[in-house]
Amino acid sequence: MDPIVEVVALLLGFIGWVMVGVCLPNRYWKTSTVDGNVITTSTIYENLWMSCATDSTGVHNCREFPSLLALSGYIQASRALMITAIVCGTFGLVAALIGIQCSKAGGENYVLKGRIAGTAGVLFLIQGMCTMVAVSWYAFNITQDFFDLYYAGTRYEIGEGLYIGWCSAVLAIAGGACLTCSCKMGTEEKYNVPYHARGTVYTGAGPARSVGASTYGRNAYV
Fold first, then answer.
1. pTM: predicted TM-score of the whole model, two decimal places
2. Which is deepest, 68, 98, 165, 188, by most CB within 10 Å?
3. How far apart, in whole angstroms, are the C-alpha atoms of residue 58 and residue 8?
4. Major location, coarse class (predicted)?
5. Other Cβ atoms closer than 10 A to 42
6. How far is CA 12 from CA 26, 81, 93, 178, in A?
7. Which class in CATH covers the domain with range 3-192?
8. Residue-wise over 13-31: b if at least 16 C-beta within 10 A, else e?
9. Could you tell me if 110 and 189 are in contact, meaning their C-beta atoms sit under 8 angstroms apart?
10. pLDDT tens by residue, 76-131
11. 112 burial class (0-12, 13-18, 19+ CB within 10 angstroms)?
12. What is the DSSP letter of 194?
């Protein structure tokens, strides 16, 4: 594969990994809606870890969720998926830095480097899929409660943290797909030297003949 494509894929994976790190602690995964409210005295916003409120004077107060087991199942699953995405992205970056062709970290074994690059691509794909599932699942629950006419609790809208997560997932999946395509499953080196080994060639038109130094005539030697 073109080394430029590998470098671009590495940059996409790196940017996606950074955006996951920005998305996870972001407080605005969902914000309380003002739809249907004539007077709004406070704004509530939450993420996977805490719930915050801001009043009309600008004073805000945050509290962490008191119990892990008391949380909804989708929040617990989203936490696990986002942490998995960060871990896979970290290992993917290390593997990509070793596996790309322009890197000297993995030596000159291009077959091994290609397989390491392919592994990095798979890790980036896992990162992107975990992030995509986490933020999409979280957004689904927000929209489900918002459009439920019988829901009596606070209605929320999608916050900026989810948009960052979606962008991160797309970048990670794109970078992972490019790196996965660079995986070299063959056994030949990148630069092959023509070589004819001694042996026997079998042809259907006639008897077997030997291939080697004897195929050259005497006039071939100086």
1. 0.75
2. 165
3. 43
4. other
5. 13
6. 21, 20, 10, 10
7. mainly alpha
8. bbebbebbeebbebbbbbb
9. yes
10. 999 999 999 999 999 999 998 888 877 776 667 767 887 888 889 999 999 999 99
11. middle
12. P
